[in-house]
Specification:
- The chain is mainly α.
- The chain has a single domain (29-494), classed as Glycosyltransferase (Alpha/alpha barrel).
- It has 19 helices and eight strands.
- It has helices at residues 13-27, 36-49, 93-110, 118-135, 149-153, 178-194, 200-219, 224-227, 229-232, 243-257, 260-269, 288-300, 308-321, 346-366, 379-394, 418-421, 438-442, 472-475, 479-494, and strands at 4-5, 91-92, 141-146, 168-172, 331-332, 338-339, 368-372, 375-377.
- The strands form three sheets. Strands 1-7-8 form a three-stranded antiparallel sheet. It has a three-stranded antiparallel sheet with strand order 2-3-4. The chain has a two-stranded antiparallel ribbon with strand order 5-6.
- Strand 7 (368-372) and strand 8 form a beta hairpin.
- It is globular.
């Protein structure tokens, strides 16, 4: 596809119909008037509710206490800290690393819009990178998970009480995991940019570690789902393969280090690692759309003609998600929410919307738009599409429900989250055992602890939502839903 400028030709009848469909879609259920800065503050606060380990003195989610203080002890290493990925008590390294990558990207692109919340966003990144540094402290080895998911998911326990196995799982040369290692390298590299001017020594530590972890990922290729199938499947199986994480890691190392070797790696391995596959997918398992958007910035700035194919793929991604476009590959609910089959749909909503917004900014700076057939999708249109998704999350939807806990007056009360649904240690100091927690899981009562800022999996394809803990695909929050939303809310808080 050829690049086109921001000066558009006269509309054809097809173009007019397309734009009419898009405008109609954007107006559906639009209530407007959201306090994006309040939502931003709460979306970052959520990460404090997900912290594992020894909590710091400035911890703001006060109903949480220290937990998992012996993680790594069985392996003779210190693996305290990091994040619980969702409503359980396992630390899964793959989604945790993606969370840190997206938090870092949010700060890199939109940190200037965060105002007083920038410091809290940086703390959220560092809580994750401090853990990733521990998990990668030994060359040729990465700890990728702490906790046995089968025993953990068989209990309903507070993280402060858990007494299930805290086995530490690792990948090494004989048990490769290029996917999780590649994502970990991406997270460390992206975070190194965040700290480059704020803490140069820490930034160098992150970047040097990213280089080593990426070399390990590339040298010992394989999927961690094969090496650790019994521990990571069906929870975080890498269904998509490890190739995209190698390109993703290289892309972030190129951005962070400016070393030509990573650009040459990307160009050389573009076809081998299938850069053009599934261009409309982006999340903890599939990085393709993200790779294309990230690398397109340099192309649009006229600095990387050898990466032009990634810009073409990024344009294809945009066309694939536009509502009303004949080649759209993304489904929308009647109320206007992006919907993809599988669990926790809101992860797709926030990740794809982040890419729409990021790419719209790159296009704006280059004075370009995206050609989709005989129409031109302008940067302004992409921003409106992204805002529409954010507004849906915050309450502009058929149920008039905010899917962010604690935002607005009507939000989910019974989220699938152990710490939120069980009495806090302050109100119930006695230990609550594995099966004793079941009565709280099955209770029709609202959760006693409000996990402010948590965004749940969201409604189904017909915009209905069961506010019930057992419906975990709809009612469970995750860190990788919130991470890209941080960037979106930052931008819209500064551009209401």
């Amino acid at each position: 596809m050829a690049r086109i400028s921001g000066h558009f030709p006269a509309f054809s009848a097809t173009t007019f119909l397309f734009l009419l469909l898009v405008v109609t879609h954007l107006r559906q259920c639009s209530g407007g008037g959201h306090d994006y800065h309040d939502a931003l503050r709460k979306s970052i606060l959520f990460f404090e509710g997900q912290r594992s380990g020894k909590l710091p003195p400035d911890q703001r989610v006060r109903w949480r206490r220290d937990s998992a203080l012996h993680d790594g002890a069985t392996a003779g290493v210190d693996l305290r800290g990091g994040y619980y990925d969702a409503g359980d008590n396992v630390k899964f390294g793959f989604p945790m690393a993606f969370t840190i990558t997206m938090l870092s990207w949010s700060i890199i692109d939109f940190g200037r819009n965060m105002g007083g919340e920038l410091g809290n966003a940086i703390k959220a990144v560092k809580w994750g990178t401090n853990y990733l540094l521990k998990a990668t402290a030994k060359d040729g080895l990465v700890y990728v998970q702490v906790g046995d998911p089968l025993s953990d998911h068989n209990c309903w326990e507070r993280p402060e009480d858990m007494d299930t196995s805290r086995m530490a799982y690792k990948i090494d040369a004989n048990h490769p995991g290029s996917d999780v290692a590649g994502e970990t390298a991406a997270a460390l590299a992206a975070a190194s940019i965040v700290f480059r001017s704020r803490d140069p020594a820490y930034s160098r530590l992150l970047l040097n570690r990213a280089v080593k972890v990426f070399e390990f990922a590339d040298r010992h290729r394989g999927a961690y789902s094969s090496s650790l199938h019994y521990a990571v499947c069906p929870f975080y199986c890498d269904v998509n393969g490890y190739q995209d994480e190698l390109l993703w890691g290289a892309a972030w190392l190129h951005k962070a280090s400016r070393r030509r070797e990573y650009r040459e790696y990307i160009v050389k391995n573009e076809v081998v690692l299938r850069a053009g596959d599934t261009i409309n997918e982006f999340g903890w398992d599939n990085k393709h759309a993200g790779i294309n958007v990230l690398l397109s910035k340099e192309v649009l700035m006229g600095k990387a003609d050898d990466l032009e194919s990634f810009r073409i793929n990024a344009d294809g991604f945009i066309c694939s998600v536009l509502p009303g476009f004949s080649h759209s590959q993304v489904q929308y609910s009647p109320g206007g929410l992006i919907f993809k089959a599988g669990g926790s749909n809101m992860q797709h909503v926030t990740s794809l919307s982040f890419l729409l917004l990021a790419y719209s900014n790159y296009l704006s700076h280059a004075n370009h738009a995206v050609p989709c057939g005989d129409t031109a999708a302008s940067p302004a249109l992409l921003k409106r599409l992204a805002r529409r998704q954010v507004d849906y999350i915050l309450g502009d939807n058929p149920l008039r429900m905010s899917y962010m806990v604690g935002y607005g007056s009507h939000y989910p009360q019974r989220i699938h989250h152990r710490g939120s649904s069980l009495p806090s240690v302050a109100s119930h100091p006695a230990h609550i055992s594995c099966k004793e927690g079941s009565r709280y899981y099955l209770s029709p009562n609202p959760n006693p602890n409000i996990l402010v800022g948590a965004v749940v999996g969201g409604p189904n394809s017909s915009d209905s939502f069961p506010d019930s803990r057992p419906f975990f695909q709809e009612s469970e929050p995750t860190t990788y839903i919130n991470a890209p939303l941080v960037g979106l809310l930052a931008y819209f808080s500064a551009h209401p």
